Fold this protein.
Amino acid sequence: MIRYLNISQLLCDLTFACFMVSWLITRHVLFMFVIVSTIFEGPQYVEFKWDYEGGYYVTRNAFSVFCGLLLLLQVSD
């Protein structure tokens, strides 16, 4: 938007650089903390059972697939 408002090319470049740094940190550093926390601390808080009437739909296999997809998202970039 800064580019289309014709404010300043330097401000546009600085804004893009801040975005890239914040994206790299959140995508490749902080997201890894989320993945590790989900894999190792998640089973302490999630009850693995399938009970349609009770609203429980997480089995150990479903949780493993979910963690695998998070890992795939991390390495696919």
Residues 9-75 form one domain. The beta strands are 49-51, 56-58. The chain is about 70% helix and 10% strand.
